[in-house]
């Protein structure tokens, strides 16, 4: 039996498992091919070879259940996700074995968040751990939380409390958001209450930043949304140019002489540092969280 299992493991192409995992995640051969940067026939052939090797149908290809994994496919996907998690954790494990704190700390920040203390925090941290590099990526709250839940990201900074129990969220600070317009007239509107709106990508109903839209409605700002911006910089540029009014962090907008705040009460959005409770943290990640605690940015964990 052991010999048979060894033969199975030696003959199995691990790239087929990676392709299958992406097919399940994308629910499409076309989208999987695009994500893997290969052709659709290559993806189809890989799926067929894997099914032949395992002697199981893994994907339903027709009817209402098109491109849904079969029961065997569901089991295989869970194992593939575990394998992928182990492989992606290898660099962190090797860094830990080396005994020197090094590597990359990747922070995924929601585009609407302004954290002016972050550069100084990174600089102070690197004085203690000069071999650590930082990578800061922008995204929407929903995308970042989704990546964290799938263990495709390690640390995220968001404004949404997520109900998934696997996500651990610790409060960083409260962010006041005000509504602004350029010092010149908003194009196409004399009354700010009817002015077009520039929103963030995450402001749709049911999304993490929907509170901003609700706040505008209650304040009588009834203009149409004419553009969505991915981050503060892009949204501020549109507001400054007179394309419409938009919500921005007050600490960010206060530095911009090209904008004026509307006389409305601000809305307060809590900002959290989020991670997956079961995702392995590298020594660099662990030391960064400890550094944030030492600087009073994060409450110490019990």
TrEMBL record:
<dbReference type="GO" id="GO:0000976">
    <property type="term" value="F:transcription cis-regulatory region binding"/>
</dbReference>
<feature type="domain" description="HTH lysR-type">
    <location>
        <begin position="12"/>
        <end position="70"/>
    </location>
</feature>
<dbReference type="Pfam" id="PF00126">
    <property type="entry name" value="HTH_1"/>
</dbReference>
<dbReference type="InterPro" id="IPR036390">
    <property type="entry name" value="WH_DNA-bd_sf"/>
</dbReference>
<comment type="similarity">
    <text>Belongs to the LysR transcriptional regulatory family.</text>
</comment>
<protein>
    <recommendedName>
        <fullName>HTH lysR-type domain-containing protein</fullName>
    </recommendedName>
</protein>
<dbReference type="InterPro" id="IPR036388">
    <property type="entry name" value="WH-like_DNA-bd_sf"/>
</dbReference>
<dbReference type="InterPro" id="IPR005119">
    <property type="entry name" value="LysR_subst-bd"/>
</dbReference>
<dbReference type="GO" id="GO:0003700">
    <property type="term" value="F:DNA-binding transcription factor activity"/>
</dbReference>
<keyword id="KW-0238">DNA-binding</keyword>
<dbReference type="Pfam" id="PF03466">
    <property type="entry name" value="LysR_substrate"/>
</dbReference>
<keyword id="KW-0805">Transcription regulation</keyword>
<keyword id="KW-0804">Transcription</keyword>
<dbReference type="InterPro" id="IPR000847">
    <property type="entry name" value="LysR_HTH_N"/>
</dbReference>
């Amino acid at each position: 039996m052991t010999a048979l299992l060894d033969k199975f493991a030696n003959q199995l192409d691990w790239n087929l498992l990676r392709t299958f995992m992406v097919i399940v995640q994308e629910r499409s051969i076309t989208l999987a091919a695009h994500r893997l940067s290969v052709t659709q026939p290559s993806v189809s052939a890989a799926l067929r070879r894997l099914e032949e090797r395992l002697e199981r149908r893994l994907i339903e290809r027709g009817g209402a259940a098109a491109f849904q994994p079969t029961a065997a496919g569901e089991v295989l996907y869970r194992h593939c996700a575990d394998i992928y998690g182990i492989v992606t954790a290898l660099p962190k494990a090797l860094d830990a074995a080396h005994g020197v704190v090094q590597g990359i700390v990747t922070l995924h920040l929601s585009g609407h968040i302004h954290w002016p203390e972050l550069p100084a925090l990174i600089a102070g941290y690197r004085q203690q751990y000069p071999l650590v590099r930082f990578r800061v990526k922008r995204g929407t709250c929903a995308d970042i939380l989704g990546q964290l839940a799938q263990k495709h990201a390690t640390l995220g900074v968001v404004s949404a409390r997520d109900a998934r129990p696997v996500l651990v969220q610790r409060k960083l600070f409260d962010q006041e958001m005000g509504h602004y317009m350029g010092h010149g007239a908003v194009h196409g509107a004399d009354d700010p209450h009817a002015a077009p709106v520039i929103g963030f990508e995450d402001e749709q109903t049911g999304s993490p930043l929907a509170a901003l839209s609700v706040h505008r409605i209650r304040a009588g700002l009834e203009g149409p949304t004419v553009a969505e911006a991915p981050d503060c910089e892009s949204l501020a540029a549109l507001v400054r140019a007179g394309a419409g009014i938009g919500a921005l962090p007050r600490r960010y907008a206060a530095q911009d002489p090209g904008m004026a705040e509307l006389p409305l009460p601000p809305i307060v959005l809590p900002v959290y540092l989020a991670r997956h409770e079961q995702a392995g943290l590298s020594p660099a990640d662990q030391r960064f969280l400890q550094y944030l605690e030492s600087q009073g940015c994060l409450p110490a964990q019990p």
